[in-house]
Amino acid sequence: MRPRIVVTRKIAEPALELLRETGEVWVPEPDRALPTEELHAAVAGADAVVSALHDQVDGAFADAAGPQLKVVSTVAVGYDNIDVPALHARDVVVTNTPGVLTDATADLAFGLLLSVTRRLGEAERLLRARTPWMFHPRFMLGTGLQGKTLGIVGLGQIGRAMARRALAFGMDIVYTGRRRADPGVERELDARYVTLDELLRTSDVVSLHCPLTPQTRHLIDADALATMKPTAFLVNTTRGPVVDEAALADALKRGAIAGAALDVFEKEPEVHPTLLELDNVALAPHLGSATTETRTAMAVLAARNAIAVLRGEEPPTPVRS
Ligand code: GLV
Ligand code: GLV
């Protein structure tokens, strides 16, 4: 019998083609984020699920699918929405899509950083409001990056790609994380391993690239923000809950830090109302990996992961527990 493959969001056509060669593919019509009840009904009888980062994938999800479920393949690098131990306990393989979105996400992080430091959003709002203006030597001065220190929290693939971009802009790199990077990586990036406290105290830009885990939830809280320099910027392109968003909004409003560049939010799609009022914040609606090329590559990798497991093979990028 051909396997039943449930794809919870409409993904790039080349990936759907691959899946259709392997099994009976179901995609929601119209495309939308399925609420939990509908999601559970949709996955019933599935041998494979290709999921999205807003799907809550836990024991109840796996039980709703049934004992034939072999793989959950998320089209994302982050898998904080997946209860991996609960799935592994049911012999379900979990896979994600690392690597293929590294450059796109680092590009977006650096672009948002430039947007806030050079006040691009604020400048565009000024023009669109048809505010009278004229070139002026002290008009809308921003902050330069050359010679400044970038502090990277989590020197994984995306953190390293961010560091490479920062090096090209003449920045110095410090980093922190669960463990020290290989000496070769430190040499390539001229990066110094420091404690989180030292990173927060000394960085002109703090950029978050760690996954969301119980250990990193609210890693950047009111205390961490108070430790940062008043001239420093925070960049978050990982997951919203790594930052206490209310504390961040308060710090930005008081000028306790200079600004923030945010692609992710604590309760997506909601954004803390104070952030929407402030000019020292650059905002994007979770677009880190959102290029046509990257989303296609992610979808194809997710399809390959699901197909490999259905064939009894080792998938290219499994999540280990
Ligand atoms: C996007 O946020 C991802 O985890 O891929
Ligand atoms: C892996 O792709 C990472 O998040 O660093």
Automatic annotation (TrEMBL):
One Pfam family of this chain:
2-Hacid_dh
Entry's Gene Ontology cellular component terms: cytosol
- Can you give the residue ranges of the D-isomer specific 2-hydroxyacid dehydrogenase catalytic domain? 5-319
In this chain the D-isomer specific 2-hydroxyacid dehydrogenase NAD-binding domain maps to 110-288
Check the UniProt entry and state the signal peptide residues, or none. Answer: none
Q: Which UniProt keywords apply?
A: NAD, Oxidoreductase
This protein's source sits in the domain of life called Bacteria
Molecular-function annotations in GO: glyoxylate reductase (NADPH) activity; hydroxypyruvate reductase [NAD(P)H] activity; NAD binding
Record-stated family = Belongs to the D-isomer specific 2-hydroxyacid dehydrogenase family.
Official protein name in the record? Lactate dehydrogenase-like oxidoreductase
Q: What is the lineage of its organism?
A: Bacteria, Bacillati, Actinomycetota, Actinomycetes, Pseudonocardiales
